[in-house]
Design a protein that fits this description.
about 220 residues; 9 helices; globular
C-alpha cells in the first residue's frame, strides 16, 4: 500500500481543504470519491478508518487518518511545511487557536446554512424561511467575530502569511460566497482576506464541483427551498 490516497468528496469543505493543500504543495495522491449522501460513510468498513463516519480520510502507505485538521497537521509535519504550520511556538499556537475555534464556530456555515440549502436544492427536505433566518443570524454572529477579532490582529489568521488556519477557514466561507447564501458586504476585512486566498494556486481546480452546485442553488428560487 504505497503512496497517498485521499477519500472524500469535492463538495465536502474539510475534504476541499486537504485537497487544495496537497495540490498547492505538488504532492501526488490518488483520490477516491466517497459520497455521504449515498450512505457510503455509514457502514462498518468505513467506521474502521473513520470512527466518526466523516470525510476526509487519508491512507498514507496503509496508515489511515481521519479529521481534516489532524490530516493537515500530519502532512505538514511529515513534509516540513513550516510556512503552513510554523515551528515557532507562538505562531503555531495561533494556528492551533483558530483550528480549535473552527469546529464549534465556523463550521456553522455548513451545518446551519450550506447543508440545509443543499438538502432543499436536492429536494430532500425544505428550508423554511424562519429556519433560514435563524441560521443566517447564527452565521452572522460567527462572521462578526472572525472579521472584527481574528482578522483585526494580522493580515492572516496566524500572522503575516497563509497557514493551515486560513485554508481551513476559507473552505467554509467559499460556499457562502459562491452559493450566495449570505451578504458578506458588512465584513470588509473578511472580503479582502478572501480575495487574497482566492488568488492562490489551484483555487478553481478544487472547486469545480462547488461551482456547479452553486449554479444549481442560484437557479432555484429561494421561496421554493
Amino acid at each position: 500500500m504505497s503512496g497517498l490516497r485521499v477519500l472524500g468528496h469535492y463538495v465536502s469543505q474539510p475534504t476541499r481543504a486537504v485537497l487544495w493543500t496537497l495540490r498547492m504543495k505538488n504532492v501526488p495522491f490518488e483520490f477516491e470519491k466517497v459520497d455521504p449522501v449515498a450512505g457510503e460513510t455509514r457502514n462498518e468498513e468505513f467506521y474502521k478508518i473513520s470512527p466518526s463516519g466523516l470525510i476526509p480520510v487519508i491512507s498514507d502507505g496503509g496508515f489511515y487518518l481521519s479529521e481534516s485538521h489532524a490530516i493537515l497537521v500530519y502532512l505538514s509535519e511529515k513534509h516540513g511545511w513550516t510556512d503552513l504550520y510554523p515551528t515557532n511556538p507562538q505562531e503555531r499556537a495561533r494556528v492551533n487557536e483558530y483550528l480549535h475555534w473552527h469546529h464549534s464556530n465556523m463550521r456553522r456555515c455548513s451545518s446551519r446554512l450550506f447543508l440545509p440549502t443543499l438538502q432543499a436544492t436536492l429536494g430532500a427536505r425544505p428550508f423554511p424561511d424562519d429556519a433560514r433566518a435563524a441560521s443566517e443570524k447564527a452565521v452572522h454572529k460567527v462572521l462578526s467575530v472572525f472579521d472584527q477579532r481574528f482578522l483585526s490582529r494580522s493580515e492572516f489568521l496566524a500572522g503575516a502569511h497563509v497557514t493551515l488556519a486560513d485554508l481551513s477557514a476559507y473552505c467554509e466561507l467559499d460556499q457562502i460566497k459562491y452559493c450566495q447564501l449570505l451578504d458578506l458586504a458588512p465584513y470588509t476585512r473578511l472580503q479582502r482576506w478572501m480575495d487574497t486566498l482566492a488568488a492562490l494556486p489551484h483555487h478553481d481546480d478544487v472547486r469545480k464541483s462547488l461551482f456547479r452546485l452553486a449554479k444549481l442553488v442560484q437557479e432555484k428560487p429561494k421561496a421554493s427551498l
